[in-house]
Amino acid sequence: MIKIKLDNAVDFVEESELESALQQAEKAFKQVVDGTGPGNDWLGWRRILAEPNDAEIDQIQQHATKIREDADIFIVCGIGGSFTGAKAIIEALNMPFNEQGPEILFAGHHMSGRYLEQLLKYIQAPKENGDPKSVYLNVISKSGSTLETALAFRTIRKWMHEAYGDEAKSRIVATTGQTGGVLNKIIAEEGYKKYIIPEDIGGRYSVLTPVGLLPVAVAGIDVQTLYYGAVAEFELQEKNPETVLKYSALRYTLHKKGVALDVIGSFEPELMGFAAWTQQLLGESEGKKGKGLFPAIAGYSTDLHSIGQMVQQGQRNMMETLFVVESPLSKMKVPQVENDTDQLNYLDGKLFHDINKSAREGTVQAHREGGVPVVEIILEKLNAQQLGHLIYFYELMTAVYVYMLEVNPFNQPGVENYKQAMYRLLGKR
Ligand code: PA5
Question: Which InterPro entries match (predicted)?
Fold first, then answer.
């Protein structure tokens, strides 16, 4: 279960404003549950938790185990909702500098030729013992036609067919919509293994489909626990959505009172990928009809030495949301040394976790006093189950809050504008 601390934010709004926003949040929640809001054919992210497909989760886990046994490198090729979720979970749960299991690389999330050139060089270079690297590729695109992903896929796939011959077919896995798109044509021609993204789930709500589950399982994370963490949160919120309603109502009220930005961050660097996932989820869902809180992200304490200044004393148009992990992620303590030249002996033997906690508590106090409402979203521990809770919490909160804005949370019509201009310049017919 996700805990949420609102004490450092609620004083910025009147009780009566919050009360009336809560009533609106209840209505918006009902629209989500009853499927009566705009975009109601895109509620599959709830359906899959109400009726979990255990056979598919098992199949993904087994496939991932096989890939893990053989792969040195697993490339996730996708953009937007087709990669942020997997990246968020892998960064959160895998240890830094972890050398167990295949290295997970990302591609298709921008158009840098330099990056692709170096990626090809890297995967082609033999291992330390002189053996070639064993490379697998997972292309992920619901539409099957997104340019960034398609270009990277063409480039890496060509290399894989040259390097592995016919065996490339068993090393390339495609995750896409059931029908349509050029990717489905390629799959049919080449016979790649295919996972289906359900029609009723949009990209940024798809992390608990094969889009996120396969890469996460290949990274060695228990996807069943992750998934059932989300199921548990779904069941809890269906009965008692209090936390989601309160947070949605507060965001909505602050926005109405002129707050324009939500600075989303954490003092745990492991959770910055997750912050990026929420940035995409919120940004593409709420930024329409001239409305929405701009979801900025900040990694603390690093960014206290940069945009922290802006948060403390810049324009008073922002709120802040921090992801907190209660239990220490490590038992690392400040080491004792013989003298005190660095004047750090007052911290001797202290857990880094506790020092980081004091930095967070001090920051929350300072930002609040500086005029920034701060919300803390609290996980007991950083594990697959808790992340599952957090994923559903955010999906639901996004839908409820965006319905309060009277906006469709499930489309992204504005994304087409840059594409049309770009295709014109590129001469696409
Ligand atoms: O949330 C969304 O729908 C988008 O961010 C998409 O995930 C993104 O544009 C990638 O699209 P596709 O999976 O079709 O390549």
Answer: G6P_Isomerase, Phosphoglucose_isomerase_CS, SIS_dom_sf, SIS_PGI_1, SIS_PGI_2
Q: Is the CB of 301 under 6 A from ligand 1?
A: no
* Domain made up of 47-221: CATH architecture: 3-Layer(aba) Sandwich (3.40)
Cβ 319 vs Cβ 374: under 8 Å? yes
What are the two backbone dihedrals, phi and then psi, of residue 405, each rounded to the nearest 5 degrees? -80, -5
Unique residue bearing structure tokens 């063409």: 154
**Inter-residue contact 400 to 28 (CB < 8 Å):** yes
Whole-angstrom distance, CA of residue 390 vs CA of residue 394? 6
Cα(410) to ligand 1 centroid in Å equals 11
Residues 162-174: pLDDT tens digits?
Answer: 999 999 999 999 9
Give the pLDDT confidence of 183-202 residue by residue, as tens digits: 999 999 999 999 999 999 99
Measuring CA to CA, which residue among 352, 346, 356, 262 is closest to residue 301? 356
The topology (CATH level 3) of 3-37+226-404 is Rossmann fold (3.40.50)
Strand ranges, E, within 186-338: 193-197, 261-266, 294-299, 318-325
Does the ipTM surpass 0.90?
yes
Does residue 419 carry a catalytic annotation?
A: yes
Residue 16 burial (CB < 10 Å; 0-12/13-18/19+)?
exposed
Is 27 among the residues known to form the active site? no
The angle that helices 15-34 and 384-404 make with each other, rounded to 10 degrees, is 100
CB atoms within 10 A of CB 74: 24
Cα dist. 77→4, 54, 381 in Å? 34, 25, 30
